[in-house]
Design brief:
116 residues; mainly beta; 6-stranded mixed beta sheet
Length: 116
């Protein structure tokens, strides 16, 4: 079982940056591929980015490619999402989970709001 706590969200102007963190509990964190997901108001939750257990491989949704960077520090049991060049359409609650996601691992998420 893995428990996940997201942080780092906030209100930022278009073009700005934020760095999200996801702290994981559990001794097996480093064995999981991890992902970031987001849910905008009245929309379904969608995939944003993923990283392999080793950190060697990363994957991005087309909508964030070139602007967002996912990384991890297995010694700290933490996954990060560096978000640059933010756009109003990036406004959403951001969640981390294993990849592919498991229903029992969703946390509270962290709100990101981008003003135009």
């Amino acid at each position: 079982q893995v428990q996940l706590v997201e942080s780092g969200g906030g209100l930022v102007q278009a073009g700005g940056s934020l760095r999200l963190s996801c702290a994981a509990s559990g001794r097996t964190f480093s064995s999981y591929d991890m992902g970031w997901y987001r849910q905008a108001p009245e929309k379904e939750r969608e995939f944003v980015a993923a990283i392999s257990w080793s950190g060697v491989s990363t994957y991005y949704a087309d909508s964030v490619k070139g602007r967002f960077t996912i990384s991890r520090d297995n010694a700290k049991n933490t996954v990060y999402l560096q978000m640059n060049g933010l756009k109003p359409e990036d406004t959403a609650i951001y969640y981390c989970n294993v990849d592919p996601p498991r229903s029992g691992y969703w946390g509270q998420g962290t709100q990101v709001t981008v003003s135009s």
